[in-house]
Structures are given as structure tokens and as C-alpha cells.
Amino acid sequence: MKTVLVIGGGVTGLKTASELAEMGYNVSLVEKEDYLGGQVVRHKYYKLAPDLRLAGDVIDPVIKAVESNSNIKVHKHSHVVSVSGSAPEFKAKIKNSKGETEETFGAIVVATGFDHFDPTVKQEYGYGRFKDVVTNSEVEEMLNPNGPTKGELKRPSDGKVPKKIAIFQCVGSRDRQVGNPYCCRVGCVVSTKQAIEIKEKYPDSEVYVYYMDMRMFGRGWEELYGKAMEEYEVIFTRGRGAEVTLKNQQLSLRAEETIMDRPIQHSVDMIILAAGMAAGDGTIEAAKVLGIKQNDYGFLAPKDDFLSPNESSKSGIYIAGADKGPMDIENCIVEGAAVAAKVAGKLKN
Amino acid sequence: MSEETKNPITEKIENTKGGHFYKEIMKDFRIKESLHGCLNCGTCVANCPAAAFYDYSPREVCQMMIEGDEETIEEYMKGKIWNCAQCYSCKYRCPKENSAADIVMAMREIAVREGLAAEALAGYTRIAKLVLTRGNQLAPDMLSPDAFPDWGPRMIELSSKKMEMREELFEGFPGMNVVDRAWAAEDYTIYEMQKIWEESGALEKVGTVFPFLVDIVQEDMEDKAEEMDAKIEEKKAKLEASKKK
Predict the structure, then answer these.
(1) Strand partners, A264
(2) ipTM for this prediction
(3) Which of A275, A309, A328 is at the close of a domain?
(4) Ordered per-residue pLDDT tens for chain A, 349 residues
(5) What is the DSSP letter of B140?
(6) How far B1 CA sits from the closest chain A CA (Å)?
(7) How far apart (Å, rounded) are the C-alpha atoms in residues A150 and A152?
(8) Nearest chain A Cα to B93, which residue?
């Protein structure tokens, strides 16, 4: 029986590992952090769109399926530092603080995921300069009862609950200026979800979403968008947030109301940047160590997007999840299962 | 595939966009780098100082060039494009890296060439005169709050007090506290500058918009040139003489 190396302990990697282990394969799961669950756990995602179910209800069983399966060896706080050989026999060196071990694998699955785009480079938004300009992942942490504010949305500057909140869509996405012309595929629904959560918790607050297009293509997303407008009175303004300044100690944003054809200024208490997805450090590192192809934006390139979506440019090395490009949790789980089936079929022969 | 065939805008010139002005604008070398489709996101308008105070929208400029409607383009060349301040904020903020400012620059040149600019620029005769004769765009006394809706309260206050301030600053300010230029250029500098206007064809171009002005300036220039040429000859002769010694 051959062993599979899975790199990355986020949703995709966990699902891949548990699926393979259930089919009787041995799996070594390598995770650079000292916890499993990837970005979901790192940023304490609270609720998931479109059902507003707790993220924990999804991620906990996935983690448990890995931790409880004796076929899976979990290497936390570890990195794959080098790989030699070729399919169907790879030798990989796994390094952690205690030292280096070498193991032999029949196949490698890369599930190294994404990083949240760092909006510091969009200087006009003032992230890092103005305390009350925050990212959507910071809002997730705040809304989570186990987070730093114990579930309260608080302005970092004074700890008060903001009354007027603006959400900027497409931060670091659909933007050539930062080299990311692609769509992040989750920002629209996550912002809509957060707007609803905020309005639910603070009915007196005003939430404004500044968008270019609301891309509600996922299961139940369009319905959630309708709900945000009809039931929660979230205000969607068609115009991209352009600039943030501080006027008399209050945040002031500029945008164009493109449907009304007029430039506007808007004073708000807090601005949430819907930061998109960028290729993760782990993904860039894995591509380097394994020598597999990346696309223009650093994500991993499948051998054929249509016909072999989970195969990398190298035989025996597979890719899955958000390391291929922006992807939501639901689809990451599908990807994890798909790549597991592909690997199992290959190793069986 | 080459860059040229990949750009849908270049392809549309022959196919559907038939107008003369449209074609002339699209021929400009700047357009290909200034228009890559448009998300209609409004970032340019939100950042545009001209859009905040005048009837101008950089997004409209991009959309207009994408649509290529000849009548709209002609109307723009006669009017709205002259409201752009050429600050290039649109270019440095546009998520598509479009540059309405560059499109406007190309349109302005073509508008001048094609005789569409005269009416829009009629109010700028004094400025053109000052540029041609003194190398200054504006003299402080040409600035009044009526002409600048974008002035803030501080600027308006300063402007209203300028006479008193001058009196305080300089006792016996020449010419009844009035100034006709922002800074003084030396005669020789102006002579050189005017030579450049002439040699580069700029003067001729300005003449298509302000014909009478250019006639007057040219006469003035000729007088000055004679004077300066004589001075130069004199200097040369002196130099020669000193060499011989």
C-alpha cells in the first residue's frame, strides 16, 4: 500500500486526507501552522454564506475526521523542504523544529490554499493608517463570540459600536493596479452575509455596500442578496470605493454613484474592505519546492483546466482547492474529494 | 497573437466605428495604452477634481470612446474635454489602468487641428497671450473666485485680501499694487521661448484657435527678435575682439 503526501491542512487538504484514509490509504498531512483548519480557523470565520450556519459546524467535523483516523499522520508546524524522485515514488523531506525526516510517497497532493489580500498596498483606502478601516477577515474575527471582541463589532479606534458602516467590494481583486485582474469569487457573498449579520445584531446601524457588480452565482447567494436588500435594508450603491480620508476625526469616503452619474462623499464610522484572495505563501513555496507550474498570479496551474483539473504540470503531483485560484469552502470540499478519487484511482493501478 | 490583434478596440475601428473624428482619435499612439475596456466602476470620477466641480466625467470619456458615436465625440471635443485638469488621477487609480487624461490630451490636439476648439477656448485668450509673450500661464490678478469654483474658503479669503497684503509686504508696490505676471522671465529667455514656439510649430497651432492673437504676438516677436539678434551680434563681436587681443 502506498502512502500519499498531502501538503496543507486547510479545508481541502483535510478533506483529501480523510477521503484517502477512508479508502485505506496511508496519508501524511503536512501543515505549517500548529493548528488544522487553515484560513477558516486562523481568522475565526464565524458564519458561512448563504445559510448563515456556524463555520465550526463545517470545519470541526472535517478536522475530526482527520484527527480520528489512524491512517493519517499529521505533521503540524512542518514544511516540505525538498522532494526528489518521480511518480510513482517520491522522496520528500519534512522539516519541523525537531529536525528533518525523509519519507517515501506514491503521490503528492498540494492543497496549500490562499492568503487574504493585504490591502496596505491600496494606499488610497488608508488601511494601516486609519484604525477604523478594517478587512473582512478582521470582521469575521470580531463577529465570532470566541474572537477578540467577543462577538461585538467594535471600532478599533475607540471600542465603540459603529453606526454607519461602509463595505468596499473588490479590494485587491478586478484590479490591474495591484496585478490582480481576477475576481475573488467570494467577496460579494461574504460582504452580503456580513452586512446581514451586522444589521441583525445592530438593527439601528446603517450598512452601505459599494460595489461594481454583485456576482451572486453560488447556491443560494442571489436569494441572500435579495434578503439583504428586502429584509435588512442594506444599501447597495453601484460605484467602487475610490478613496478614504479622515475629516474631523471621521472617516470620509469618495465614490461615484455610477447609476446617478454623480461623485459622492460619504462620512461613515467604519469601513470594511472586502479583501480578495491572493496566492498563499505556502502555495508559492510549494510551487518552488516541487517545481510545478503557476499561473500569472502565483496560483497553481492545472495540466488542463477542463480535462485534468487536479493534475499539476508534473506527473504524480496533484493540486486542489484555493491554491488553484479563488474558491469558496463548499467547492474546496468538493475539490478535496475529487482529488482523493483521482489519486486513489492512479495508485490502484 | 500580437498585441494589436488582441485589442478589441483596435479591431472595431474598421468594423463599426466609421466617424472621422473617432478614427483620428483611435489612430493616436496613446489610445492603445489608455483604454482597456471599462468596468464602469466610477473610481476615476470619484477621484477627479474636475468632475467634482465641472460638467466632466472621465468615465464618460472612456465609455464614449468604447461606443464610438461620432456625434457625441464631436460634442465632447467642442466642450467637455476642456474641463479636464490633466492631473492624471484617473490613470493612477483606474483598476483597468485606463487613462481618460491621455484620451482627452489626444482629443484636444485633434480638436485644435480640426478646428473644433475655438469656441471652448475663447475665454482663454488672455492666458494664451500671457504664455506667448511672457512665458507665464496666469498672473495673480487674473485669478478671481468666479472663475474657480474649486477654491476653498482659505483661497477665497486670501484672494479678497491680496491688495492689502501686497501693500503691507512691499511699500510702494509698483503699478498700483497690480501685477501682470506670476514671475518675470529675462528678455533672452522669452526670445528663446518664442523661437521654440515658432520652430516647433506650436505658434501655428495656437493660430488655428486664436488667429488675431497670434498676429499681434508675431509682430511683437519680430520686433523683439531684431533687437535680440542685434544684441547677440554685438556680443559675438566683443567676444571676437577679446580673442584677437
Answers:
(1) A255
(2) 0.89
(3) A275
(4) 589 999 999 999 999 999 999 999 999 999 999 999 999 999 999 999 999 999 999 999 999 999 999 999 999 999 999 999 998 999 999 999 999 999 999 999 999 999 999 999 999 999 999 999 999 999 999 999 999 999 999 999 999 999 999 999 999 999 999 999 999 999 999 999 999 999 999 999 999 999 999 999 999 999 999 999 999 999 999 999 999 999 999 999 999 999 999 999 999 999 999 999 999 999 999 999 999 999 999 999 999 999 999 999 999 999 999 999 999 999 999 999 999 999 999 998 7
(5) G
(6) 17
(7) 6
(8) A177
On whether both A80 and A206 belong to a single domain, the answer is no
Q: Helix H segments across chain A?
A: 11-22, 38-42, 55-67, 136-143, 187-201, 221-230, 281-290, 329-348
Task: Give the nearest partner residue to B95 out of A174, A263, A264, using CB atoms.
Answer: A174
Contact A263 B40 (CB under 8 A): no
Backbone angles phi, psi at B55, to 5 degrees: -80, 85
Same domain, A160 and A108: no
- Run of H or E residues at B73: helix B70-78
Q: Are residues A282 and A266 in the same domain?
A: no
Residues A126, A175 within the same domain: yes
Domain that holds residue A91: 3-115+278-348
Residues of B in contact with A258 (CB under 8 A): 40-42, 45, 59
The amino acid occupying position A23 is M
A18 & A134 share domain = no
Q: What is the DSSP letter of A301?
A: P
Find cell 446601524 and name the residue. A205
Q: What is the CATH number of domain B3-116?
A: 1.10.1060
Neighbours of A200 (CB within 10 A): 11
CA-nearest residue to A255 within chain B is B46
Q: How many helices (H) and strands (E) does chain A have?
A: 8, 20
Q: Are A192 and A225 in contact (CB under 8 A)?
A: yes
Any idea which residue has 456556524 for its cell? A54
Identify residue A76 by its one-letter amino acid code: K
Report the largest interatomic distance among the alpha carbons of chain B, rounded to a whole angstrom: 75
Specify whether A248 is located in the same domain as A309.
no
A16: CATH: 3.50.50.60
Instruction: Compute how many other C-beta atoms are within 10 angstroms of the C-beta atom of residue B31.
Output: 20
A345 closest CA partner among A20, A109, A22: A20
| One domain for residues A124 and A108 | no
As for how many domains chain A has, the answer is 2
Residues A16 and A60 in one domain: yes
